[in-house]
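tokens incoming
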């Protein structure tokens, strides 16, 4: 979308509008980065790996055939634990991306 030059002649209003426009652009960039974030976790032997969205939705699951030897209960516990760790990873990454923008709002 093309930027418009919105000058009113009122210096204070023009300053506020310019600041708003700059913040809107920065916010759009942060939202774009946030959409690309994924949390990941893997078992120590790397036989089970998960990837989740920032909201914790499972987006990828890899189970090496050798992991089937764990038994259904242990495999389920492993997947649940990795999903939680991946969600924490996604939340941490999201905070890293948004922290600079949020810190500006505290000024």
């Amino acid at each position: 979308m093309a930027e418009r030059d919105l000058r009113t002649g009122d210096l204070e209003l023009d300053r506020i509008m310019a600041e708003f426009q700059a913040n809107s652009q920065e916010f759009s960039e942060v939202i774009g980065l946030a959409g690309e974030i994924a949390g990941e976790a893997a078992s120590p032997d790397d036989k089970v790996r998960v990837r989740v969205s920032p909201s914790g939705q499972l987006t990828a699951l890899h189970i090496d055939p050798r992991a089937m030897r764990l038994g259904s209960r242990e495999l389920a516990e492993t997947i649940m634990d990795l999903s939680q760790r991946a969600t924490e990873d996604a939340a941490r990454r999201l905070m890293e991306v948004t922290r600079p923008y949020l810190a500006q709002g505290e000024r």
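note: The first strand starts at residue 39 and ends at 42.
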